[in-house]
Amino acid sequence: AKPSLEQLFQxxxxxxxxxxxxxxxxxxxxxxxxxxxSAAKFTPxxxxxxLLGYRNSDVDIHLPNELFPDELLNTIIDYTGGIPxxxxxxCDTALLTAxxxxxDRVKAEDLESAIxxxxxxxxxxxxxxxxxxxxxxxxxxxxxxxxxTLLSVEPVDKERVLAGRSHLCDIKIDQKSVSGKHFQMxxxxxxxxxxxxxxxxxxLVNGVKVDSKLLVDGDVxxxxxxxxxxxxxxxxxxxxxVTTIPxxxxxxxx
Length: 254
What we know:
11 strands
């Protein structure tokens, strides 16, 4: 068995997580790659123009003929997670598909065919942390409540479960006070450890703010107006309610 990582988590003081590229960044990245690969001459970009960290570039990001229209970018992000290496693969396949169909730019049907050829699912569904796909049931689940009302029951079926406001998260929490990637749960030899990802407003477990903690059956994770109850899979949810502790009362929980 793997040794416990609990002591390691306790010693980590600074954590940094790289997010995928956003909409505008993906657009700029694709344009830069196209301009770099093209044999045509482009007007130099002014020295003060920022292009994903590139300065004094000899390429013009304002291509006269957009090979990847903006309406395709959200689909590209959904299937690549905004990761440049995956963007390269998907866009290259889509370009070949468009060329074979004698299209002067990539169309939605070309992108869909490229995704089918690559046999890709949306990025959040094909994480390397997923289980082995043998159909085994999840040992734990998260019951998601908002202001006491049960919204959903989410299986904890991966070795890493990411929660936050970002579309890349396994558990999406739609609230402005919640960070894009707010917290994660990591499977260790002792069980699941919750780890706050340097969120703006923090993560609470049973009313106490934590950086990391080994979760036990029945623990309640609090994020904004949401409460997520960690428990053994299969427990009934009929008429169950869980509420967060008001900020002014939290000192009584310590």
